[in-house]
Amino acid sequence: MPSQTEQEMHDSGQLLYMLRLEVDEIWGATYTPTQTLRIDPAQLPAVKRRLIVRSAFAAIEATAYTLKRLAIVGAMVLRLQNKETLTEEEKVLCREERYELGGNGEVETKKAKLTFVPNLRFSFKAFAKAWDIVFVLDTNAPEWKQLVNSVAVRDRLMHPKRLADLEVTDTEVREALRGFIWIEENSVAAINDVESNLNLQVKNFAGQI
Chain centroid to CA 50: how far? Predict the structure, then answer.
């Protein structure tokens, strides 16, 4: 029977798979054995443009959450090796929690109030630090800047005040999806770095037996 942590990791993986599949289904993606083929998103009609921006951001936020959950696991694994990689404050944020005093003088656990960009950056930093790998999200990359620009588009679509707020231009939909793919590629690369590091440790350990 899987542990609670293993079940959470499995569920997180399934969540990411479903959200990323949703983006591709809206996009009309086709799959080959070696790649995923996608049309220029500017060819999408207005309704699908709105849907795909919302879905892409949902997938990115789920990716950030999963990286933080994996960071907690990494911190526990390395602690068994007598390495303390995350501070207590970082572990609390990875759980998306905050503490405050209730009226009765007791400590209460609340849900942390996290904004998109700082939370996304923190998720990659915490993941790399927790697993003790060298991985840095390049926030000077054009795709990062495009993603940051797209936050305003997502917010506008989630909280429309006028008809014009529902419009997603060619540039806006392209930038949002470039940012989405870039975050997906970086998250896969970071996780692969951890797997490579663990495989190397296992190989070195086996050589000592």
Answer: 20
Is 51:26 a contact under the CB 8 Å cutoff?
yes
d(CA 97, CA 69): 12
Per-residue DSSP letters for 55-66?
HHHHHHHHHHHH
Q: Which two tokens stand for residue 189?
A: 């690369």
> pLDDT tens for residues 2-25?
566 667 767 888 888 999 999 999
* φ, ψ at 31 (rounded to 5°): -120, 140
Q: What are phi and psi of 107, to 5 degrees?
A: -75, 130
Q: How far is CA 152 from the centre of its chain?
A: 18
Contacts of 112 (CB under 8 A, 6+ apart): 92, 93, 96, 97, 98
CA–CA separation, 119 vs 116, rounded Å?
5
Residues with pLDDT less than 50, the chain: 205-206, 208-209
99 contacts 110 by C-beta, under 8 angstroms: yes
Contact between 111 and 98 (Cβ < 8 Å) = yes
Q: Are 59 and 26 in contact (CB under 8 A)?
A: no
What's the CA gap between 79 and 117, in Å, rounded?
Answer: 29
CA angle (31 as vertex; 25, 37 as ends), nearest 5: 80
Question: pTM above 0.85?
Answer: yes
Residues in the chain: 209
